[in-house]
């Protein structure tokens, strides 16, 4: 009998079902019960549990089938597997249906039901192929080879083993190589190729020893016992069979023990020790009856019949050999059936049944002839194929030679024709080229003179434009600096008053308006350079998620008082609910609306000004209308041009530079939107802005309820940040959430801590000394670290975020740190344990610490600029912008970020203005006593 390595993976799946954990744990505890009746009783109770769902039911049936198979209860195993098959019959390619089909085949094989096993394995192979699972296909080919060996269809066995080996070489591991090597050795034993079989078994044993696979070693010993038995070395055969028996008795593997004792009985018969062979055959029969195995009974009866015949008990021997032969026919073991026919003829002759003995002998010879004819036929077909292939190759060779000869003749004729044509054409080209060569020479001289003259003229114009652009940039930078300096004090005082008058809600509303609009004005002052940046294609949008209602509330607060002063009716309306969220550049969109509403209020003396917003699946439509002076058709034609207004009288009456509508149009086009205008003179105007986006509904928290956030009782987070104050702040935020925090100040420390501590999640800054974030991430991936790693940086441009994700980061968190986004990321990767009220994080000491470092930062930046260390200066600006954003120094962060971007493009002359502004802001911020850093 050939021994099989069969994959019986019916363990509980690693993915946890969504049902109560107590029920899942009860299922997993079934394997801990010793008594089989206790397992059955507990299993039936769990199957009737009211909370069991389809996933848990599947896991329970798998567990029960596994326990039944371990105890050699093949009938119960088949019952549970067929129940799984019935439940998943509507999904023939599902995991459950495939599992049941495969395990039913294995169960049938262990019972010796090879016809049923063959049908089931072929069905499982088809399912594995449709599911595109190469490793499962390899397993099924391997198991089919085992079945065909048992039915003595060796050519089919070789075919399936070959397919399995191809797939294992691509998808398998060392265990798979050992299994297929051992199974192939069985074929060589059947063909009496003992040396080759010995080499293959030795290789398989070396693999099993590397894998520490005692079961595989015991199986290899069984194969060695069979090999030495066929070679007639009975002492060696007994040694290896006995070594295998010792292992299987310790494991109580009755399925293997019945086969091994049957083989030992055959060895004892060969040695002439019939008393010993009878004991061993009875042991085999005992184990076969224990597990109700027909194949085991067949194997045990055959040597027992031969032993009784040798001892003279012919009648009993005849009954046993006839029963064994009947079982061989039922199970399809043709190899054993042939040997049993020869023994039956001998026993029948001894019992005086000479006619029956002759019939049995004739059947034996017929089967022997069939075996030989099959082998001869296979060889003849192979020989015929070789003859046909040789004849076909000869005809193909002759055909190719004829084709090659014809091609040579055609090429020869074509070459003669082409050669004649080339001679004529060459003469014509020579004449024409001489003429044009002289003309080209004259033209080049004339062109060279014109090019030199034009180049000099263009160089003069370029120098003039460059100088004018430098003057413009210097002017804009100086104006920006002069306005932002007092704005910082205004905003700081507003924040301080908000803290001092926290109990006065009316005053807090007014102070809040001052603070927000001051921040907006400060940002707009920085955007004075935007128009030139747009023209130079250097302005980039910064997309964030916000509610449309918050945008309209912000705009409404700005223009409500202005309209009240002029006696105008002011309205802001929309056809959407308060939960609509969009992802756009909040500042640029607000800037567009401010420009349009500002013009509407400015040019309207009486009547009304309004903003109407409509929400569509494709985007948002903003309509700004007024009852002001309106425009003529001629004025409409140039309304979006730079520094243009309706006429000079409008400039004298209302003021303004005429830049706002031009900037609004270009910002709208940058967001892939459109802007249009309808107007009638003396009746009013309507500006329509369309911004494409994907509006989404988002649940808004109740203003009366205290917000809740998750709190973790366990979890380890590593923060890699080179700025000391930022690192301390992030550590405090995460520790407030109940997490254990590891802090690293550069990439090298981050890699070392990750490999040593193995945190649950990593927040990695990009620009750090010694080793940056991208290098650290690559090193972690090479080292096998597979936990989530998020980029933590102030770079929030779309192309920068895409580059981080392409480098292998799990996601991105921006500076300053968004607490909601941080909690969302943590919730995605860490299990939530409890909820707690959000408490206000005290950053006053960290902000003071950051302000105290500004003087040293300024000195470093001046030193880098004067020594032209551009790379170090760029890194210093990046670090400064991140920290300033974290502690709400918006202007300082914007200036540092703008200087960093200009250094990246190596525009060092244009960067000088921003460098001077940054030095002034650092100096002013570090000395100011008015700014409330709390």
What does the model show?
Residues 1-20, 379-384, 701-708, 833-840 and 929-934 have low confidence and may be disordered. A five-stranded mixed sheet has the order 2-4-5-7-6, with helices on one face. Strands 11-10-12-13-14 form a five-stranded parallel sheet, sandwiched between helices. The chain has 934 residues and is of the alpha/beta class. Strand 4 and strand 5 form a beta hairpin. The longest helix has 147 residues, at 354-500. 35% of the residues are buried. It has 35 helices and 15 strands.
Determine Rg (CA atoms, Å): 44 Å
Indicate the low-confidence ranges by residue numbers. Answer: 1-20, 379-384, 701-708, 833-840, 929-934
Number of strands: 15
* Straight-line N-to-C gap: 84 Å
| Cα shape | elongated
* Biggest sheet, spatial arrangement of strands: 2-4-5-7-6
Please, what is the average pLDDT?
78
Sheet/helix structural class: alpha/beta
Helix content: 55-70%
């Amino acid at each position: 009998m050939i021994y099989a390595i069969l994959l019986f993976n019916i363990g509980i799946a690693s993915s946890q079902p969504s049902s109560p954990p107590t029920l899942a744990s009860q299922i997993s505890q079934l394997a801990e019960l010793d008594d089989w009746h206790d397992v059955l009783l507990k299993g039936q109770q769990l199957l009737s549990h009211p909370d069991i769902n389809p996933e848990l039911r599947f896991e329970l049936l798998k567990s029960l089938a596994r326990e039944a198979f371990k105890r050699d209860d093949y009938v119960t195993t088949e019952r549970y597997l067929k129940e799984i098959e019935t439940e998943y019959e509507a999904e023939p390619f599902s995991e459950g249906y495939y599992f049941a089909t495969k395990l039913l085949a294995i169960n049938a094989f262990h019972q010796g039901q090879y016809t049923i096993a063959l049908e089931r394995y072929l069905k499982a192979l088809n399912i594995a192929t449709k599911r595109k699972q190469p490793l499962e296909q390899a397993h099924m080919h391997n198991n089919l080879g085992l079945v065909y060996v048992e039915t003595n269809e060796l050519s089919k066995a070789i075919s399936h083993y070959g397919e399995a080996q191809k797939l294992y070489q691509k998808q398998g591991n060392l265990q798979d190589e050992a299994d297929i090597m051992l199974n192939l050795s069985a074929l060589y034993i059947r063909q009496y190729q003992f040396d080759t079989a010995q080499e293959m078994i030795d290789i398989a044993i070396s693999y099993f020893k590397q894998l520490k696979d005692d079961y595989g070693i015991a199986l290899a010993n069984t194969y060695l016992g069979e090999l030495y038995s066929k070679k007639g070395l009975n002492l060696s055969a007994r040694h290896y069979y006995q070594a295998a028996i010792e292992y299987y008795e310790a494991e109580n593997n009755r399925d293997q023990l019945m086969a091994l004792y049957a083989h030992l009985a055959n060895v004892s018969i060969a040695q002439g020790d019939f008393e010993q062979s009878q004991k061993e055959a009875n042991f085999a029969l005992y184990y076969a009856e224990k597990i109700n195995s027909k194949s085991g009974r067949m194997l045990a009866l055959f040597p027992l019949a031969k032993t009784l015949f040798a001892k003279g008990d012919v009648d009993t021997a005849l009954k046993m050999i006839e029963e064994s032969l009947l079982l061989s026919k039922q199970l399809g073991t043709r190899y054993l059936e042939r040997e049993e026919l020869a023994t039956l003829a001998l026993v029948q002759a001894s019992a005086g049944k000479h006619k029956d003995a002759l019939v049995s002998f004739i059947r034996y010879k017929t089967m022997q002839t069939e075996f030989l004819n099959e082998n001869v036929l296979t060889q003849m077909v192979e020989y015929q194929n070789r003859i046909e292939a040789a004849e076909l190759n000869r005809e193909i060779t002759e055909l190719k030679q004829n084709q090659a000869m014809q091609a040579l003749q055609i090429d020869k004729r074509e070459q003669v024709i082409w050669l004649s044509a080339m001679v004529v054409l060459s003469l014509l080209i020579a004449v024409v080229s001489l003429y044009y060569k002289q003309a080209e020479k004259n033209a080049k001289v004339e062109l060279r003179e014109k090019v030199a003259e034009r180049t000099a003229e263009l160089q003069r114009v370029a120098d003039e434009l460059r100088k004018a652009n430098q003057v413009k940039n210097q002017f804009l930078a100086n104006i920006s600096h002069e306005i932002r300096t007092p704005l910082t004090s205004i905003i700081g005082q507003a924040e301080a008053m908000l803290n001092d008058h926290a109990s006065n809600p009316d005053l807090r509303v007014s102070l809040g308006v001052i603070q927000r609009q001051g921040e907006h004005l400060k940002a707009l002052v920085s955007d004075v350079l935007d128009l030139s940046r747009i023209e130079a294609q250097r302005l980039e949008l910064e997309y964030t998620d916000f509610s449309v209602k918050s945008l309209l509330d912000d705009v409404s607060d700005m223009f409500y008082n202005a309209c009240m002063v002029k006696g105008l009716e002011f309205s802001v309306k929309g056809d959407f609910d308060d939960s609509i969220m969009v992802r756009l550049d909040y500042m640029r969109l607000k800037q567009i609306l401010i420009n349009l509403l500002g013009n509407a209020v400015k040019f309207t003396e009486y009547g009304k000004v309004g903003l109407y917003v409509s929400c569509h699946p494709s985007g948002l439509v903003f309509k700004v209308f007024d009852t002001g002076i309106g425009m003529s058709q001629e004025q409409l034609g140039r309304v979006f041009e730079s520094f243009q207004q309706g006429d000079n009288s409008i400039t004298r009456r209302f003021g303004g530079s005429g830049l706002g509508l031009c900037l609004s149009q270009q910002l709208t086009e940058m967001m892939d939107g459109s802007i249009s205008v309808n107007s009638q003179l003396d009746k009013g105007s309507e500006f329509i802005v369309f911004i494409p986006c994907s509006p989404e509904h988002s649940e808004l928290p109740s203003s009366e309820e205290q917000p809740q956030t998750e709190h973790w009782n366990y979890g380890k987070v590593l923060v890699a940040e080179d700025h000391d104050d930022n690192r301390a702040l992030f550590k405090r935020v995460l520790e407030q959430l109940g997490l254990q925090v590891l802090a690293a100040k550069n990439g090298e420390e981050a890699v070392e801590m990750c490999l040593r501590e193995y945190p649950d999640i990593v927040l990695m800054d990009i620009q750090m000394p010694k080793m940056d974030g991208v290098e650290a991430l690559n090193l972690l991936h090479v080292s096998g670290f597979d936990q989530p790693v998020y980029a933590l940086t102030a770079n929030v441009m779309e192309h920068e975020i895409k580059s981080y994700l392409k480098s292998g980061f799990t996601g991105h968190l921006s500076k300053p740190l968004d607490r909601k986004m941080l909690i969302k990321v943590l919730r995605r990767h860490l299990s939530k344990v409890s909820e707690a009220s959000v408490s206000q994080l005290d950053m006053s000491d960290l902000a003071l610490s950051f302000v105290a470092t500004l003087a040293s930062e300024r000195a470093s930046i001046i030193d880098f600029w004067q020594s032209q260390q551009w790379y170090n200066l760029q890194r210093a600006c990046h670090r400064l912008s991140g920290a300033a954003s974290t502690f709400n120094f918006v202007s300082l962060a914007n200036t540092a970020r703008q200087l960093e971007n200009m250094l990246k493009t190596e525009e060092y002359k244009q960067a000088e203005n921003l460098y001077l502004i940054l030095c002034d802001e650092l100096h002013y911020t570090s000395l100011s006593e008015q700014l409330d850093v709390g």
